[in-house]
Give the backbone structure.
Amino acid sequence: MGPGVDGNQGLAATLWRRPRLQLSLLLAGPVGWLVIAYLGSLAVLFVAAFWRLDTFSGEVVHDYGLSNFQTLWEVDVYRTIVLRTVAIAAAVTVTDALLAFPIAFYMAKVASRRVRALLVILVVLPLWSSYLVKVYAWRIILAEDGILNWALDPFGLSGPGFGNVATWLVFSYLWLPYMILPIYAGLERIPDSLLDASGDLGAGAGKTFRRVVLPMALPAVVAGSIFTFSLTLGDYITPQIVSSTQFIGNVVYTNVGVANNLPLAAAFATVPVVIMILYLLGARRLGAFESL
Amino acid sequence: MRDARWAAVAAATVAMAVVVGCGSSDSGGGSGAKVKAPEGPKALTKLGAGEGQVNLIAWAGYVEDGSTDPKVDWVTPFEKQTGCKVNVKIGNTSDEMVTLMRTGQYDGVSASGDATLRLIAGGDVAPVNTDLIPNYKDVFAGLKNKPWNTVDGKPYGIPHGRGANLLMWRADKVKPAPDSWGAVFDSSSPYKGKVTAYDNPIYIADAALYLKSAQPDLKITNPYELDDKQFSAAVDLLKKQRSLIGEYWSDYTKEQAAFTSGDSELGTTWQVIANLLTADKVPVKVALPKEGATGWSDTWMISAKAKHPNCMYMWMNHIISPKANAQVAEWFGEAPANAKSCGQTADPNHCKIFHADDENYFSKVSYWTTPTKDCGDDRGAVCKDYSEWVQAWTEIKG
């Protein structure tokens, strides 16, 4: 008998009839990863928010204070940027929900099997191409001599140009699949018989939608909104390409990359974390996590 | 029960991460002096044999080994000649370069004037012994011993080249041709929504430069040394300008695209962008407005912790040699530092187009410099430092 076999037997003997130990060993890797790499970095971020920058040497001073949060609270521009970011994220979420619901409903309840498969592919297709390619494509569409202005010109209109409207449009386009797929999955789970029953009991199409479909699909819509809202909230590349407006992410990026002011960036980065925690708590109450 | 145990483990791990994250580090000294060079770093006294490689941080286009364009190569001859293999990391902004240099992993950097003083004050770079760099004698006098590359009479780098931030406009849309920066600050401008500006805190200096002549009562002497009143006047001007701006530009391809498509018609630019647009038959014109302009003057600096100092000295000598300096100046689109380079450029008019030997032209250019607390004159330490510039820039963009 070789030593390796001996070792294996020893290990097997140790684990035998010890389910707790087995489970701990099995989960040690993934849980360790989650705790150290993910929660650990969040903790370091939070700690860094209380440091400050020495303005002369440009180096981070490790003593604790609330000066960064004070700056964020007292200087108007940061509040404006938070409100703008949240407002555009909310607008994108509402837009995507309105666009996605009919598509998802058609896919789940009306389309034949073949058409449904085709639609699923079409919805997922944009996710195969690079994020940057899609955003730059929108830049070309929205440019002064772009296709949008060319199409609107005969009617005496012109496109929105590069700005808040452009960011809203591009984000709505980018994250639409993330809204369609959860709603589609949610609607598919509603049995057709319920719709028939509602009709048999005298409810019209509108009433069936309001009283039967919507309440049952709402958790799915909220689940989709988590994606559209959080992805918009955290993005900083699209605003840079199709506008000159600043999102929370742009300010964080400038403070890390340009000003080397890590503490202020860390303080500002805690804002979207707090917003998302509140959002997720709300989403849980609406039952979104059962629909994911 | 089991959940509680996991939570305890998680909490312990987080606590550990926090403790590690809080590891103390020395805080930099915050004295009020303009820039005080730390005592530590010493210049090399004798050039030895090459160490076999050199690690550089550079602007895109400054260190070309033929991989971008086979005809554009001044690295391979250097490697053959000295045996120093060149490794380059591209820095996209001055701020990024400072951050990279502070890692201590690089031998040298091509720093603009808005980075050099920060590097010197931080003790990140060492003085340069110019006796060990034979080509230094041919550098234009207008570039030597300047406040952004020399402290206490000690040169901290080798001038690489320079250029101005010019006013550019679409000749077919903007009439009459502007000759003043007033064109981009005029609140009743007919080009509202088509004006562009450089997306960087250092652009505040452009507004200050304009105010220097437009509002003489502010007594602005240097657009990088702004006290409270001067600074808020410049920031207010830029906040008003915000409504004229279609979009800001930060990398040159973005501005090139915006002028081609017509999204921008008027604004600040670099000569190289104008050249590229003209080559694409976009009708643009550039001028150095009557108020003068901001600009850049780049300097090769050697790290205080350089692991390959001899190779770095050889590189500094090579990059300002007549041939290599001519190549890099033509490729990047700027005025070379070496006077002899003008005889080596592929386009015999290059030095003329970029005003390389025109000290009168460059006397109107205020080169990028890091704003510091100390104004550098009898006003004392009442000026706005760079971190305040960054914060103001965030507020200007809104």
